[in-house]
Amino acid sequence: MTSDKVQIPKIEYAKSKNNGLKKFYCSIIMSTLGWFIPKIACRRSGVIDELKYFPDKSFFTFGVLSNGPSVTFQKVGDKVKKIKKADSSQTILSVYLKSIEAAWLMFTFQESTCQSEANGRLAISGELPYACAFIRFMNKVEILLLPKFIAKKAVKNWVRVK
Amino acid sequence: MNSIKINPAGTIMCGRGMLNQLGYEMSLMGVTNPCVVYEDKYYKKAKKASSFIHFEDEQLPLSKAALNDSDCLILAGSKKMKANFSDEKRFTIWILLSEEELDDFNNTGTNIIVIDSMFIKKSARLKNFIENFALSVSDGLVKVPKKLSIPDSFIFACRTSVIAGDDTLKQLPDVIKALSKDLRRPMVLSKGIVARTLVGPVVDSLEGLNCTVFDKIPPDSNSTVVNEISRLFKQNGCDLIVAIGGGSVLDTAKGVLLALANEDDDLLSMAGSNVLEAFSTPFIAVPTTSGTGSEVTNVAVITDDERQRKCLYLSNNLQADYAILDSKLTASLPSHITAMTAMDALSHSIEAFTCLGKNPVSDMFALKAIELIRDNLISSVNEPENLQLRYNLAIASMFAGQAFSNSMVGMVHTIGHSVGAVCHAAHGCCMAVLLPPALEYNYRKISKELEQLLPYIAGEDVAAKTLPEKRAHETIEYIRTMNKKLQELTNGRHPTNLSEIKDREGESLVKKSDFITIAETSIGDASIVYNPVELDVCDILEILEQNY
Fold first, then answer.
1. I need a labelling partner for B9 at 20 to 30 A (CA). Which of A136, B162, B342, B546 fits?
2. Cα three-residue angle B397-B401-B404, rounded to 5 degrees
């Protein structure tokens, strides 16, 4: 005998894992980059040279999805400024890590930026020559920022930055 | 005559952090309302797995039965449960929650398979699962190597159904019906001799359908022609793209997909990697050369006419819905074109096997492609009308395409793209010339992979007779020998160095004076990221000088 009664599936909702500690750590790294890039790294010709093809007054963003920390810069002459809000019409590049876990792997230097892209963890909006320049730029920033034994894990080839 | 039909592999996401990334991938696939369906025995694990899926900041509903209003079912359960949903029309994702589910894999059309290291660790069982996955999505053709290395994480995706064989183009009407019975107005794209000889019979075979034909595609896909086709597409109410031709025709078709999804004419606003959402227009690719693998790849290169720049678009959503490989279509290719396009496919497979994005599934596709090229290229140049050899090369090209679409390519393409762009040299020629020196440049990082390649490229006998420490070098030398052999067979038209890449008048296309421009253009090529060894302008200049 079949029943006419329609079974309504019992539904419950999965509570999203907060990843609080990882988010906090990634926020600190992002803030450090936000300070270190304009104040220290971009004073080196070897670093700022990587952005020579970025148009003057253009913006670029590096961040973590979804709603993770992010930092936006503007290239002004041969300097880079950290800014709060970008003019979207002048944003030439946005590089986002697809999840906080992807950011954790990169920021704990378990995966280099290149390996992260090769593993499909980055979402890049903008022309890819700019993205290549950004990746080289970040490699040099990491070489300057990190002790050599850690930086060697984060880049393909450790070289002294001019 | 062989023939195969391969169903789409879907996507396999394996390793660390894959559940966290699933939400983003779902958004790109146009999912709006997912639900998690679980089995009692996996309730706790299903709940845990769901908590790691961040989908547009919404809490995911969990239920023992599929919810009617959901457009995506995330199956958190056993393979038996997955099999129960094999006829499901909605988007389905299967999350493996226990190692026992790895055994006896049977691919039943799930769109995404997620194997997160939180639940499944690296093991012989996982290796076995990956082997079975690759075999099942290649009609049993791929080559399983003795040593299969599994990285910490990887993603492999192929959404294209493939039909290959002799006279398979005749199946086009059935393929269109299989996509949707509502499709009525295909737009057929082609150019040159294909347009003059092939498009007429194809259009005739599509009786009852209202075809629009566009056959003025330039050698390099550009934004002007893409926007023109997209306007024509909308104007004529077309509902499907059928692209018949080589790389430029297939790239133009992908560009039209982009333009149709874009509100304005500015394709540049969609440039990037992993950011394009799924397209609503179906796309059938019919390649007429065996080399680019574009029929299954996730890449499109379109020149932006306004800014005079080549723009690269990378997205799994650019893969065709169907690829029809008909060996008859390549039978009339001249021998030097057969040689260079096959060397292009060889460079795809070798770079896929040796660059940063390499993964076990793409490795298996790459190895089979290498073996097919080894066994069929020289004979195909000697016997151009042998359809069996053409068929094998078409399969090799398609497998190489699947391999590099997932692993990406490295410095052979980094420099080769720029030589092509600056000097207007044929892509395949650049690949043939640059492959051996690029492998030498990367040698210190890829010697183990090169050693592994020897039996596939030169044969088991040669590998067995070569000392292990010499195998990597022998692999590179074997490619050089192949180039020399092809040069003899094509009366000198196949190049072995850059100065031998010539135009129809016999003038050298690559000039030493172009080297600086080539090197500076190269460092902006996206493939540089995936090369295992860092590369700068000086390194590129040195390679160009040494191989002129």
1. B342
2. 135
pLDDT in tens, A3-55: 455 555 678 887 777 778 999 999 999 999 999 999 998 889 999 999 998 99
Q: What is the predicted pLDDT for the residue at A3?
A: 46
Q: Which residue of chain B is at minimal alpha-carbon distance from A17? A: B51
Query: pLDDT tens digit string along B219-235?
Result: 878 889 999 999 999 99
Q: CB contact, 8 Å: B43 with chain A?
A: no
- What is the SS3 assignment for A135? helix
Q: Considering Cα of B390, then B395, then B400, then B406, what sign does the dihedral take? A: positive
Identify all chain B residues contacting A156, using CB atoms and an 8 Å cutoff.
532-534
What pLDDT, in 10s, does the model give residues A104-145?
A: 999 998 999 999 999 999 999 998 889 999 999 999 999 999
- What is the arrangement of strands in the sheet containing B161-165, beginning at the earlier edge strand? B4-6, B161-165, B322-326, B283-287, B240-245, B186-189, B212-214
ipTM value for the complex: 0.89
Asked if B150 is an interface residue toward chain A (Cβ–Cβ < 8 A), one would say no
CA-nearest residue to A19 within chain B is B52
Closest residue by Cα to residue B212 from B196, B232, B228:
B232
Chain segment B472-503, per-residue pLDDT in tens: 999 999 999 999 999 999 999 999 999 999 98
How far is the C-alpha of B158 from the C-alpha of B402, rounded, in Å? 7
Rounded to whole angstroms, the Cα distance separating B24 from B29 reads: 9
Cα–Cα distance for residue pair A43/A91, rounded to 1 Å:
22
Q: Looking at residue B333, what DSSP letter applies?
A: -
**d(CA A14, nearest CA chain B) in Å:** 5
Rounded Cα gap, residues A97 and A56, in angstroms: 25
Q: Which residues pair with B11 in a beta bridge?
A: B112, B157
Chain B contact present for A122, CB below 8 A: yes
Using the predicted structure, report yes or no on whether residue B341 has a pLDDT greater than 90: yes
Tokens of A158: 């450790």
Q: How far is A98 from chain B (nearest CA, A)?
A: 6
CB A127 within 8 A of CB A93: yes
Chain B, 267-306: which have a CB under 8 Å from a chain A CB?
A: 268, 271-275
Six token digits for residue B414: 């980094």
A101:B534 CB<8 A: no
| pLDDT tops 90 at residue B149 | no
pLDDT for residue B438 is more than 90: yes
Rounded CA-CA distance B132/B138 in Å is 10
Closest CA relative to residue B333, chosen from B396, B420, B245, B422: B245
User: Given its phi and psi angles, is residue B392 left (phi above 0), alpha (psi -120 to 50 degrees) or beta?
Assistant: alpha
Indicate yes or no: CB of A121 within 8 angstroms of CB of B408: no
User: In chain A, what are the domains?
Assistant: 44-154 (3.30.1050)
Of the partner residues A15, A53, A119, the one whose CB lies closest to the CB of residue B154: A119
**A125 contacts B272? CB cut-off 8 A:** yes
pLDDT score at B372: 96
How is residue B55 annotated by DSSP?
B
- Containing A100, the helix (H) or strand (E) segment is helix A100-107
Predicted confidence at residue A142, as pLDDT, reads 92
In angstroms, rounded to a whole number, what is the distance separating the alpha carbons of residues A73 and A75? 7
Record: contact B24-A156, CB cut-off 8 A: no
Structure tokens at A133: 């320049």
Do residue B275 and residue A125 have CB atoms under 8 angstroms apart?
yes
- Hey, how many other C-beta atoms are within 10 angstroms of the C-beta on A86? 17
